[in-house]
Amino acid sequence: MSTLTVARARCGQSGSDALSTLIGWVEGYLMEAHPDLGRTGAVCPFTRQAARLDSVRLGICEASPDNEDSVFTLIRTSFQALEAIPAKPAMAHFRTIIIGFPACGGERGIAMLRRIQDRHKVYSLTRNRMIGLMHAGSEAPGLWNPDFRPLRAPMPVLAIRHMVEQDAPFAVRHPLLLLPYLVRFPFAGLKRIVAHYSGRG
Fold first, then answer.
1. Nearest to 33 by CA among 21, 22, 47, 20
2. Cα(59)–Cα(146) distance, rounded to whole angstroms?
3. Nearest to 82 by CA among 69, 100, 98
4. What does the buried/exposed string (b/e) look like for 88-111 if buried means 16 or more CB atoms within 10 Å of the residue's CB?
5. Where are the domains of the chain?
6. 177-192, pLDDT tens digit by residue?
7. Phi and psi dihedrals of 172, rounded to 5?
8. What is the tens place of the pLDDT at every residue in 108-126?
9. Backbone phi, then psi, for 115, in 5-degree steps?
10. I need a surface site. Which of 53, 85, 100, 161 has the fewest CB within 10 A?
11. How many other C-beta atoms are found inside a 10 Å radius of the C-beta of residue 21?
């Protein structure tokens, strides 16, 4: 795993197309505004703030769809790597790991990565962590514009981060997340959920 600064340097030295593509997507898409997003600000404000704090870690995994066991091990150890990212206690929740899988862009690869995500859902939620899958064909609708597809990426990506108070819109959309979210943020979280529904009304 590399910081954004180190990853940029490696791209310059090795000419890694996959790493360059991943950096371009993180910096040029996740950390920027988008006209179809449905709200102001970056597509992923979390990532933008994490980058400012130097708590983003990027990686490229060349595993194929047939390497599910090794990818599972990589992701499981990435949860431990997340905790090892240096951060001030008050800013520790901005740590995130983003891993690109350039050899898994086909149906079999996406299906394998989705299984990896599913196998980690309970593991992540019991630790107040989130794991997300993004890929070129994602049809997951946007929270503020249902016609927008915010989880599309130029290559399959698995991202791990901390659950944060601002995850209320995700919590109301995903029943499995709702209880852990309210346990983690019993008062502020409930307030945000009520505000979310009020804003939609």
1. 47
2. 30
3. 98
4. eeeeebbbbbbbbbbbbbeeebbe
5. 4-162, 166-201
6. 899 999 999 999 999 9
7. -75, -20
8. 999 999 999 999 999 999 9
9. -65, -40
10. 53
11. 17
